[in-house]
Amino acid sequence: MNKTYNYINLLFYVVILAGCSTPKSRVLQPPAPPVLRVDTTKINPDSVSIPSVTEALTENQTPALPILRTTEDRIKEMMRQGINKNSDWTEAVHYDIRKPNFVVIHHTAQHSINQTIRTFQLEHTKVSAHYVIGKDGQVVQMLNDYLRSWHAGRSKWGNITDMNSVSLGIELDNNGREPFPEAQINALLTLLDTVKTKYQIPFTNFLGHADITPSRKDDPSVFFPWKKLAERGFGVWYDESNLSPVPADFNYVDALRIIGYDVANLRAAIIAFKRKFIVVDTSGNMTEYDKRVLYNLYRRYF
Ligand SMILES: [Zn+2]
Known about the structure:
- The protein is built from eleven helices and five strands; from the N terminus they run αααβαββαβαβααααα.
- By secondary structure, the chain is α/β, with parallel strands linked by helices.
- Zinc ion binds next to loops.
- This is N-acetylmuramoyl-L-alanine amidase.
- Its EC number is 3.5.1.28.
- Keywords: Cell wall biogenesis/degradation, Hydrolase.
């Protein structure tokens, strides 16, 4: 009973913490009691009582409207699934919530910020993002930074195969065939500054959706100002004044892979690389100039 209480107590603090944009661990975490012994009693997570909105209704009450699960209900369900039934349980006292370590930038390929928000709120679409930024610079947050948004889909960067678990997704209202207004980019830069500092995200970890899904996606488009972002400390760029010839033994496929690209579909990886860094030519062929750009990036950062 005591352990069950502790478990619910843990859930309570995690739920509260997850519901806030700023962790308030100093305020919310009580002094932890010392662990004096290991209780080897197995806890069956299914037996842990977690009241939900549905259970709160008495037998004779019929809801007039369909009951939607609250965010707290969803988090409680996810927490329950995170307990390994085959392990003994004793509670750790030092921990916090996992935080994002990558940012993935998208364009919405839709016609308005309102259309995108509606899309993300429809049950059947199964997509979401942490932030949506309008053309006028309006920033709308749709999901707590600590929660896992469904923005990347099947993706790979280096050896990371679940980018949704490690990243924030930011959608820019843009149909994919138009430039990004200055107000929108300025709002993005301010947001990136905030999350980079808050979560200590490495500058190399600011990516585009196409970087991590080269076979499936092409966003953000060639209009996206990657060079400007790199100058502000978000992502990488090459030294245009120092594009030296590549060595005879330079293997551009290895270089693309080492930078992070999934080269399983090499042509798709080359196109994603060129859309971002070459811009004026997005063919699937690596020219001598393209190789110099890649070599420069490879030597500079990796
Ligand atoms: Zn995307």
